[in-house]
Structures are given as C-alpha cells and as structure tokens.
Amino acid sequence: MITINTDGGARGNPGRAAVGVYISDDKGKELLAMGKTIGFATNNVAEYRAVIEALEWVCEHKEQLEDTTIRFLLDSELVVMQLTGMYRVKNPVLQGLLFTIRTLESKMPFALTYKHIPRAQNKKADALVNKALDNLL
User: Is the model's pTM score more than 0.90?
Assistant: First the structure.
C-alpha cells in the first residue's frame, strides 16, 4: 500500500497558496516529500491541487509501484466528501479540478481511497505547505 498525505493552504484565503505532498510505502519509507507554491488561490483550490500533484507523481511512477493500493489522507473533510461523491461540487473552478482528478484516476491501475484525518495526523504534508509559503524549500 502507498499512503499519500496531501495538504493545501492559502494565507488570506484567497491568498498566496501552496501544496504539500508526502508519499510513503507500506514500510513507512519516504517516496516523495514535496511542497511548492501555486500562486494566488483559495484553501480548497490548494487542497485539490495537492491531490493533483500526487496523482501526477503516481502516474509518472506507476511502473515502479507494482500492483498496490493508494490511500490518500487529507485533513480537509469537505474535499474528501467531494472526492468520494458524498457532496456535490458546485464551484466551477473546483469542478474543473475535479475533472482533472477523475482523468488522472482513470489512468491508474490501482485502487484509490480518500480518507479524512485530523490535522494533527497530517503534520508532514502541512509542514511542506508552510515551508513552501515561507520560501524555505
């Protein structure tokens, strides 16, 4: 199993925004720790963009990952509920990002799950967001 922690944040909401992605294997070995700024955005856009960054990485590395399951852990309950289909996405910008996510998911030979976790359990991805926003990466 591959575990992907993602986070996104915007200072000002909307404001200067960044994403954080932390990917590890089933033994806890770090496969990716990435944070980067994404310009001016809302928190929700940043959360979606973090998922997209992670899915793009998985697409680029799927041959090395073999047959596995991918578990996304996010501290945004709203985004998880939208990605799992429990809530509709009404915002046109988020609808476009959701379309991108669904397109990337369709290229996956893996089972994907999205789960909400408390912010305290998402420290690695959150730290990557803050380091990007503080220009420390």
Answer: yes
